Amino acid sequence: MAMEVVFKVIRQQQNSxxxxxxxxxxxxxxxxxxxxxxxxxxxxxxxxxxRKNCRNTICGSCAMRINGRSxxxxxxxxxxxxxxxxxxxxxxxxxNTIPEITIAPLGNMPVIRDLVVDMSSFWNNLEAVAPYVxxxxxxxxxxxFLQTPQERSRLDQTGxxxxxxxxxxxxxxxxxxxxFVGPHALAKAYxxxxxxxxxxxxxxxxxxxxxxxxxWGCTRCFYCNSVCPMDVAPLxxxxxxxxxxxxxxxxxxxxxxxxxxVLVELVKEGGWIDERQFGLQVVGNYFKDLRGLLSIVxxxxxxxxxxxxxxxxxxxxxxxxxxxxIAAVQKQEGKQ
Length: 336
Description:
Structural class: alpha+beta
CATH superfamily of the largest domain: Alpha-helical ferredoxin
Number of strands: 7
CATH topology of the largest domain: Fumarate Reductase Iron-sulfur Protein, Chain B, domain 2
Strand order of the largest sheet: 2-1-5-3-4
């Protein structure tokens, strides 16, 4: 059954301010957003620019922001999108009789024209993690390099990535830290770490451990997982790389390593974090990093002045239960 839908498309020329252009369309609930954009282009405005190709959630070309979230236009249909909007508006007084769909270009990438963005940074960051099996591992001319079904299964989830850019578009970490390679690159990075044919694992982990360019730049906001159309779960893959690094590193190696290990140790010891110890051990490196210690002195003085510095520490009553949970998780991780 046909319905009237208003499409508000954010249009923009390169290095110019965006404008909103409105189109009224008669469409059916089963039509995809890409179907609707095609009709707008063919029937109303041939100047509208957007990327498309397979129309079947394979190529990733048609990623764009649909009502504020990055998604594939060929995957999202009109009926489900309108239902989602109605659910969001259920508790508000703004209930339009004609549904509105807002379409915008992907984030974190400069706009070339309308919904077409320059993905150079996306591809450059992917290249930075060397997303291919090392050549040394393929120098076996006598036979194929075989994998067991179990070894191959470790690559299934990350192998589903179609490089659409949805996760990169929503990445808060990249928005504030352009040196961060992004969730798409680190998901592919874990694929290389997990690949039994690759012989560069140690070198890779050293590279992914550098400052905030690699895994420690992730803010764990979960947006990449929530928008990924292929269930790659980039945040989960980043966590797996972190775990590989943590098993190989000591607390003294870097502040990022200390942050993770000290946090677990303090929670295991007292049920929650002892703030008095956390800053001294993580930032001050157990009184070995004088510059780090001096950096937190102003904060410590302000906390003391406002009586927000805990002079004593009361362990949680559920400390033993917390310890048991941590032990269970660590045991499970050891099996994987």
